[in-house]
Amino acid sequence: MYDVIVIGSGPGGYVAAIRAAQLGMKTAIIEKYPTLGGTCLNVGCIPSKALLDSSEHYHNAAHTFKTHGINLTNLKVDLKQMILRKDDVVKQNVDGIQYLMKKNKIEVHQGLGSFVDKNTVRVTKDDGTSQDLQGKNIIIATGSKPASLPFIKLDKDRVITSTEALNLKEIPKHMIVIGGGVIGMELGSVYGRMGAKVSVVEYLDSLIPSMDKTMGKELQKSLKKLGFDFYLKHKVTGVERKGKEVTVKAENSKGEIVELKGDYVLVSIGRKAYTDGLNAEAAGVKISDRGLVEVDDHLRTNVPNIYAIGDVVKGAMLAHKAEEEGTFVAEVIAGQKPHINYLLIPGVVYTWPEVASVGYTEEQLKEKGTKYKTGKFPFMASGRARASMDTDGLVKVLADAETDEILGVHMIGPRTADMIAEAVVAMEFRASAEDIARMSHAHPTYTEAFKEACLAATDNRALHI
Ligand code: FAD
Q: Fold identical between 2-146+272-334 and 159-269?
């Protein structure tokens, strides 16, 4: 009998298993695929960032090296090698998880995990053999899969999801991206930087629509410079493939039909929770109409010894959110009283410039009726950004109008994915904009833009604009 059985080895599942083992619990993890690490390590965060880095190097070599005084001739992309390097990065990471399982004495079972009852999970291997595992506590961490529209036939060849976009054999001539969210903008950037024309069709009126509106607007400007075309407020009504040609039909806000022709369509309209084959009914676990496993504030399902974490439950579909929940649940099972501050889970888009955000957006503050002040600082005015020629974007700080407490920080610019951590720390310690404005930030760094935006938020006293 295990103390804890974890179903799914993504960032939620493997972190839950490690923390449970650290706390002295006998732990098993079940993964249906041959490699550990889930979406994030195999077909998500890690491979996408590997390709984003490679394509950004190429883009810089082709477009900015000359200005730096570096002349290259015969520059070309070796896509096959780029994909091989990405595969190697994935392998290093998934092997790392295997090592961590061994180090923490976590038993790894490869096969599909399905409930037999509330304490028994059957592991069925590809060859059909199976084994039943008994657990006092069970954590569902089965993640998510790409969502699509009912009328789109994903052929996984030219009408593709993010998974296939990480393994293309050629650079598209014209990639049509359906959905202006994080994954579409990241993978669109990968191929846009290498010369593909990219057209984005988005139903709403802005890109990355869950983030502060300023971010979407600024990102659109930067991606336009890369050659992206945008069809905002366009509702996709049809996708067809004939040979190597794909056609996307979309209806604009005037009710007119727009037709786009390309050679690849990337469907990136979001992801849906995944519980296929889990047989949750056998344990009596409730699944919502939207396919999410229902949980309470302690991430406990309606069955007291069964918990669920990560993409398969409500909330942002982010690896670090899943990880926090993995730690949280292991500690709850061990009788501790952990806490997650969901407001302070940052969101990042790894385009260039990067977008990073934490806390409330300006739109949310307006809706809540909170009185707030805004401080902005453009990277154009940053010495560090000028030195690296990364002057697109800005930092925007939202602070309470009366108390000066920082309520939200939204950044678009160079390395903001890393910079946002300072804002998370500041907000966790309930810093005021004045607090940050009075702290020394090394010069020249991109982080000075955060200090300057805080100075701007407190009596408009930014020093360098
Ligand atoms: P998953 O990582 O989806 O893992 C679930 C695992 O459970 C899978 O391995 C699956 O095979 C297994 N499983 C499912 N059912 C069973 C079963 N019945 N039995 C056994 N095993 C089962 N997030 C970020 O925070 N930062 C990023 O930069 C980022 N980039 C992304 C880029 C792309 C292209 C994509 C697609 C996603 C990205 N994400 C990113 C999102 C991130 O990958 C997910 O939020 C994260 O992987 C969720 O973790 P999880 O543990 O809940 O589930």
A: yes
